[in-house]
TrEMBL record:
Gene3D superfamilies in UniProt: Farnesyl Diphosphate Synthase
Cofactor(s) demanded: Mg(2+)
Domain of life: Bacteria
Species the sequence originates in: Actinospica acidithermotolerans
GO molecular-function terms, A-Z: metal ion binding; terpene synthase activity
Keyword check for DNA repair: no
EC number, UniProt record: 4.2.3.-
Keywords, comma-separated and alphabetical: Lyase, Magnesium, Metal-binding
InterPro entries: Isoprenoid_synthase_dom_sf, Terpene_cyclase-like_2
Name this polypeptide is given: Terpene synthase
Length: 313
């Protein structure tokens, strides 16, 4: 009997930024000029992924500069993932992915990349753009999130090299970082034109809400992309496979359990956002609103994009 991937839904919706098409044109031009899509298959992947539409869904009220930055960062992440992570040999080699991330961090922090290093050069360009839009506190949060993302890629590569699936609690903790969601949440203020001080950013409710959103997005991705990962990835490391292995479940049972876990995690988000909405702090209220856009907008984009269809380029 064929496995049925659950159709997901969230209890609130989102809009689409009116400048999304402008962001699409600009993002495709930027990726081409940086050399990220010089190979036809990478250009096709970018078109299928539609990163500007993701940016328009998750930040429907962003400033134009913020929208363009968000779309470019999403494009970089998706193309980097395709080139170096799940579907590549490097993605199963911890030493190789460590070497890659070391020179990428250098490009991010210094704004300079070596000759012929297209991903480093594109990251250096993004570094300069972000520095022009944000302050040192927001910049530090972003670089910390990117560093943790790169570290999590080494963890993923180690799991693949050893042919092992992580225990469920470890997978959940590390998936928050390997999905790069924290890097995107660290850009929310810059993209949307406001600022939280450190006291607000590190408020326990803000951290709990952000962790819940990261889980919701990553688990949703694991479910929606399940068929695509089965067909294209050499070693699938996802919530359904970890659940199936740890609890001796069938594929269908694991996918259904994932959907239940996702619904409960949305409930956790509701609990975490209540004190933010009741705080009277305009920044916290805005941040909670933008977190909701990320939950709903990411899921809407997941069903719009061709990235997670088996037939996608």
């Amino acid at each position: 009997m064929p496995v049925v991937v659950p159709r997901l839904a969230v209890p609130f919706g989102t809009d689409l930024h009116p400048a999304t098409d402008t962001a699409r044109v600009e993002t495709e031009r930027w990726a081409r000029d940086c050399g990220l899509t010089v190979r036809p298959e990478l250009h096709a992947r970018l078109l299928a992924t539609a990163p500007a539409r993701l940016a328009g869904r998750v930040a429907p009220h962003a400033t134009l500069d913020g929208l363009l930055l968000s779309a470019a960062w999403a494009a970089w992440l998706f193309l980097f993932d395709d080139e170096y992570c799940d579907e590549s040999e490097i993605g199963s080699d911890p030493a190789a992915i460590t070497e890659v991330t070391v020179w990428l961090l250098s490009a991010l922090e210094t704004g300079e990349a070596g000759p012929g290093d297209v991903f480093g050069a594109a990251l250096a360009d993004l570094s300069g753009r972000l520095r022009g839009l944000t302050g040192p506190v927001q910049w530090a949060r972003f670089t910390q999130a990117v560093t943790t993302y790169f570290y999590a890629l080494v963890w993923e590569a180690t799991c693949r090299q050893h042919g092992t699936l992580a225990p469920l609690d470890e997978y959940i903790r590390m998936r928050r970082h390997s999905g790069a969601v924290a890097t995107c949440l660290a850009l929310i203020e810059t993209v949307n034109g406001f600022e939280l001080d450190d006291r607000a950013w590190y408020d326990p409710s803000v951290r709990a809400a952000s962790d819940a959103v990261a889980d919701i997005i990553c688990w949703s991705n694991d479910i929606v992309s399940y068929r695509k990962e089965e067909h294209q990835a050499a070693d699938v490391l996802s919530l359904p496979t970890v659940l199936a292995h740890q609890h001796n479940m069938s594929e269908q049972q694991a996918l259904d359990r994932c959907a239940v876990m996702l619904e409960r995690r949305i409930g956790d988000y509701y609990a975490a956002e209540r004190p933010l909405l009741a705080s009277g702090n305009p920044g916290l209220i805005r941040f909670a609103s933008d977190l909701r856009h990320w939950i709903a907008g990411n899921l809407e984009w997941s069903y719009e994009t061709r990235r997670y269809r088996v037939s996608a380029p």
